[in-house]
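Example S7 (structure tokens).
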């Protein structure tokens, strides 16, 4: 049974998508418990070939081509293609997930049946030192570090309730079962 569908919209970002898929295929959660749906928005780079290469070692990946332009069309297409009736994980094509990312998500929903939306740390991997003025946009709210215009957030190490506006689109998780209950 597939518990989790990971939906990854992409457009001409094969290099970053490669790192994302490596991180998702290397999860501690058994591959038969989740699927990965790469929704290509008409890329002209080697996105299709890259995805097909990953299928050899991570057979739970599927490639879907979405002709209608736009992130939301890709996300909606991913939902339509999903084989999971439990949890939908939406991530961007430049996210590097920790090894226990999906296992933690599954455990969170199993332990807390009142939760319908989950978010978590989204931390940068800057290619160079960020400019000094970036600090001016950083905020701390309710013990949570936020740099909203870059969709960065660090709510800390422990699970806790956060406001829904602390969940950013680059990595958000929705429970279909808990929502329907």
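Recovered sequence:
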């Amino acid at each position: 049974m597939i518990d989790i569908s990971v939906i990854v919209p992409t457009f001409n970002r094969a290099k970053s998508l490669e790192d994302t898929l490596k991180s998702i295929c290397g999860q501690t959660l058994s591959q038969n418990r989740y699927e990965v749906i790469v929704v290509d928005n008409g890329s002209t780079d080697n996105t299709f070939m890259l995805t097909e290469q990953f299928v050899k070692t991570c057979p739970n990946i599927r490639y879907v081509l979405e002709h209608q332009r736009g992130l939301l069309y890709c996300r909606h297409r991913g939902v339509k293609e999903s084989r999971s009736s439990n949890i939908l994980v939406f991530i961007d094509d430049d996210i590097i997930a920790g090894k226990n990312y999906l296992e933690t998500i599954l455990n969170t929903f199993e332990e807390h049946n009142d939760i319908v939306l989950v978010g978590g740390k989204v931390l940068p991997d800057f290619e160079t030192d960020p400019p000094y003025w970036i600090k001016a946009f950083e905020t701390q709210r309710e013990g949570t570090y936020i740099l909203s215009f870059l969709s960065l957030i660090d709510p800390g190490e422990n699970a806790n309730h956060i406001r829904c506006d602390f969940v950013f689109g680059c990595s958000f998780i929705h429970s279909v079962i808990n929502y329907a209950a």
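Notes on this example. The radius of gyration is 16 Å.
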